[in-house]
Amino acid sequence: MAVNELLAASGAETAAMIDSGEVDAGEVLDFWLDRVAADELNGYLWKADRESARAGIRGSGGPLAGVPVAIKDIFCTEGVPTTAASRILDGYIPPYTSTSVSRLTEAGLPMLGKTNMDEFAMGSSNENSAYGPSLNPWDRGRVPGGSSGGSAAVVAGGLAPWALGTDTGGSIRQPAGFCGIVGLKPTYGAISRYGMIAFASSLDQCGPLTRDVTDSALLLATLQGRDEMDSTSVGIEGGIVSPTAERLDGLTFGVPRGLIGAGIESGVLARFEDTLIRIAELGGTIVDIELPHAGHAISAYYVLAPAEASTNLSRYDGVRYGLRSSDEDLLSMYEVTREDGFGPEVKRRIMLGTYALSSGYYDAYYGRAQRVRTRIVEDFDNAFGSVDFVVTPTSPTVAFKLGEKTKDPWTMYQSDLFTVPMSLAGIPAISIPAGLAEPDGGGPELPVGFQIAAPAFAEQKLLEAAFALEAAIEFDGSPALEGGVN
Amino acid sequence: MIEREQVLHVARLSRLRLSEDEIDILTGELASILDHVDKLAEVDIEGVEPTSHVVPLENVLRADEPRPSLDREVALSQAPDPHDGAFRVPSPQAEA
Amino acid sequence: MSTEYEAVIGLEIHVQLSTRTKMFCGCELSFGDDPNVHTCPVCLALPGVLPVPNAKAIEYALQIGAALGCDLSPVSTFDRKNYFYPDNPKAYQITQAATPFAVNGRLGDVRIHHAHLEEDAAKTIHTGGAGRIQGSEASLVDFNRGGTPLVEIVTEPDLRSGAQVREWGQLLRATIKQLGVSDVNMEEGSLRCDANVSIRPVGSEELGTKTEMKNMNSFRFIERGIEAEVARQKEIVASGGTVVQETLHFDPATGELHSLRSKEEAHDYRYLPEPDLVQVIPTQAMIEEAKASLPELPAARAARYEGLGVNEQAALLLSFEVDWAEYFEGVLESRDGIDPRVAANWVTGEFAAELRKQGDIPLAEAKVDPASLATLIGLVNDRKISHGAGKTVLESMVSDGADPETVVAEKGLEQISDSGELEKIVIQAIEDNPKPVEQVRSGNEKAIGALVGAVMKAAQGRADGGEVNRLLRQHLGL
Ligand SMILES: [Mg+2]
Ligand SMILES: [Zn+2]
Prior knowledge:
The complex is a heterotrimer.
Chain A: H1 3-8, H2 11-19, H3 25-37, E1 44-47, H4 50-55, E2 69-72, H5 99-106, E3 111-115, H6 149-156, E4 163-167, H7 173-179, E5 182-185, E6 205-210, H8 213-223, E7 252-255, H9 266-281, E8 285-288, H10 297-312, H11 330-341, H12 344-357, H13 363-384, E9 389-393, H14 409-413, H15 420-425, E10 429-437, E11 446-453, H16 459-473
Parallel strand pairs in A: 2-3, 2-4, 7-8, 7-9
Antiparallel strand pairs in A: 1-3, 4-6, 5-6, 5-10, 9-11, 10-11
Chain B: H1 4-13, H2 20-37, H3 72-76, E1 82-83, E2 86-90
Chain C: E1 5-16, H1 55-67, E2 71-72, E3 79-82, E4 92-95, E5 102-107, E6 110-119, E7 123-127, E8 138-142, E9 149-155, H2 162-179, E10 191-201, E11 211-216, H3 219-238, E12 247-251, E13 256-259, E14 272-273, H4 284-292, H5 298-307, H6 312-320, H7 322-334, H8 340-357, H9 370-381, H10 387-400, H11 404-411, H12 419-432, H13 434-441, H14 448-458, H15 465-476
Parallel strand pairs in C: 11-12
Antiparallel strand pairs in C: 1-9, 1-10, 2-5, 3-4, 3-14, 5-6, 6-9, 7-8, 10-11, 12-13
The complex binds magnesium ion and zinc ion (ZN).
Residues 22, 25, 27, 39-40, 42-43, 147 of chain C line the site of zinc ion (ZN).
């Protein structure tokens, strides 16, 4: 068994190798644990030890049994530290396991470790981790994206076959795009949120980061479904099967030209246009559409998400778990603990959200943003009346340099310009690699993501289209295989 | 436009004891973010219902059947100051 | 001249529902267990958890709404109410602000503004600081109670006095108790009452500045507390001052009011719709079930008892206390032809008095079952024993659970039914008491009382007063 074979194999291919007896699940695990041990990307915040990870292999589990998985450190795991990359949860060990991790464990997927992320999933660069940023395997001077930056980096960097992430405004899709892998944000409600540390409850959704579209379908099939511990979980009717489409005949792809304007890098735009040509070659139809309110999505999002976050993060108070910095008196316990425990971006959003909900400002901010959200939902409803999919670049730029955007929060927020509207509408969207491009102003060629969005619960259709397009694009860039990493 | 006084008020509501530097920085940052956010006023929301979330569900309820609770040692295992089977916290500051 | 002021009082009542499990998790409800033995990730608000509402709590809430004559909302939703306190683990309480499940009701002569569902806070016990580094005071938090389902009932400011609050509160308690959805035990905190109190010139429609009186644990204390507060406010206004909005605590031991001033700034609860929960849309079936399951409520029950001939006072007494009403109905059922009016008088009169006399025995612990009391009432009614002997028998019944007929036999209390025997005693009494006999014969009929007394004494209370009277008159030739 050549080492490069396992490294190059997708999750599905690895599962097939185990199934055929070509390789033993224990060997697979050892191989990946060795890779994890040599992590130079700061991709992992916690690494599984060999013994406990081996216990996670089930002899005759499901079709994916034995293929190890990396878990974003936002999913609670019983007996294993879970920090959400925050100092306030440093050393915290939950007494229960999230539904998503349980479903993967039941399917026989051993956990390799917990991946780095922006603190409480707030960020687009992974620079908001209390444990330092994880690095982009294509260029370690650049960010992997965020907030699921660690999950994207370890998959792209050959430190895991696949990974679990979460997406609130683009946190799976944007890092997948920056790292040249596939990232899927399912419909809100498709996968249980139970045990996933909350950022913005009405937007948070769990999803896979994988080498290819088939792997995304396989993980989604395992993860999706109604969960009695999450009142807002629905599941996907009929489940998910591996996609097989080769053509896009009869399918219409809407391009919101009004949204894809200023601020987009020329290289990114070029790969986007290339991909539209691929779609047409496969028989798909490209039409221009209007999403009249999508341009306001970032503004609405930066009211709604911080507002929900401000209340979700109030539970970190030093009473029952986590950090307690002061015992002076009750008020100090709260104020000093939270001041010490939260990083700058989290504080910024707590402040912003508290302000937006506070007496006298609710209507002007929260109430208005909720109504703009309704407008955006209507925009997509209208669009899907005439097209099957909405497509955009995943991000306006390729991966940027560490520190490049940390000075100005609003500039950083623009990174999610194309991903936030789908989050507000709760619809599924996938980012697939569309090739490489140089950043504006020069630099190494870096991956560009192509985003496809579909109506709520149309994941199967979305995966079929993405699968056909992926084959046509033939992206095979991998920093891990080219010796760029480790 | 957000003023320093409002930032202090919001910090109190949020239970964050910000340093002087942080207050200055946040006042500027929040003002700049709110400047952008204020563009929401351009959207016509006349007669539009608010969207809290997009789940097409109602009446998702749980049967009134007990489930096992945590062992107390487990419940208290992560507590910063467990005492006598309870979570101990400092009292509110006595009034002068 | 001086202006007349009247009190304006509105109530907020928290009712703990007696479901098996908490509002949003499967932990069992308990009272008096060791601290923190009924907790789980959800009710400890660990990172990542989500609430799932208890169907039974919604059912109970709808029943309360229906019993209070409320409109049940076609859509009801949950909101987050944000505030930091150690007994509030998420730092927000899940409650209903925008669309409570029931609105616009009425109970008796008080309008109900609305009723909403929410979760209870945990229990905090304040302790000394021994063992802590700073040696300052500390609190211990016990999350057993945290997350208990509560229905909060908010009235319009329709009450005018402490006494009215007590009476109405008792009606509310009886009503909810009868639904079987709560223990409504004020001492254990399953019923808690806050009162908003203000005063205004009689005839004015405006509301004055109100103070809030928190968590008083009996309706008697509430009555006294409100009376004290109304007096305090009147005094302030009379001396030219103004009432300040504040929260007060009434100390029933001293009769004093204390201000509960908090160091923290005025509350800004920053309500927002709870994104973790979907809306509740009561189905027609849910609404009909809630209405159909309503038992006969106190007001209707009192009217029915009065229709049976029971006097108003006894009818109200019985209706307010479900267990008394049930006892009374048990008495009626145990004996055909028993007069409800007489039975009600025995239950609320002699029997209740005897329980009180023998050390405030609660009805539930009384050794006398309804059938035995019915037998006793029958004995008196059928003139087998006198009314006075009946009370003697009741005393033994209450103290040792004795059977009434056995007591009558053992103590020889049976009335002299043989009129020949009684007649002998009467003739003897006439012979032995010439003086009253003379008075009666000379026209002073009142003097017959002395002769009745003499007969009764000779018969050791076993004679029927009416019969004695009849025989005396016969033999005196009246
Ligand atoms: Mg309340
Ligand atoms: Zn619980």
